[in-house]
Specification:
There is one protein chain. By secondary structure, the protein is mainly alpha-helical. It has one domain. Helices cover 74% and strands 0% of the residues. The termini are close together. The mean pLDDT is 92.
């Protein structure tokens, strides 16, 4: 069972990491958000003039680190479970920050699904840690 939990956690990590890398790349190369059909108007209640900084932050929090944690989990490096829990928490905080900064979040279905991923990662990490 632990092997299955770990494999599902790794799959979630790679899904999250790849989607964050794709999204951050699009936001960095096109800070207007047009490539992702995200109007600049969404940034009005935020301190950002365009999507460059959010893209960089996405890359640094939910892109590269998540892929690294996926590989750490595959290799079962000591305490990999804590990294899974940590990444679930980081994603949870990221999503909350998006909602606090901009209550008119653009993709509500994506928001809910990423909250589910965050909760699953934390739950799987705790379960793996107990075993």
């Amino acid at each position: 069972m632990n092997k299955n939990l770990r494999l599902v956690a790794v799959a979630l990590l790679f899904f999250l990491g790849i989607s964050a890398l794709f999204g951050s790349y699009q936001l960095i190369i096109d800070p207007t958000g047009k490539s992702l059909q995200m109007p600049l108007g969404l940034l009005k209640p935020t301190p950002f003039e365009n999507y460059l900084i959010p893209g960089i932050l996405l890359f640094l929090t939910n892109g590269i680190p998540v892929i690294l944690i996926g590989f750490i989990s595959i290799k079962k490096i000591d305490h990999y479970e804590y990294f899974i829990i940590l990444q679930g928490g980081i994603l949870f905080l990221w999503l909350n920050a998006e909602l606090i900064i901009n209550i008119d979040f653009y993709y509500p279905l994506a928001l809910v699904s990423y909250y589910i991923i965050a909760i699953l990662l934390m739950g799987f990490g705790f379960k793996l840690r107990k075993s």
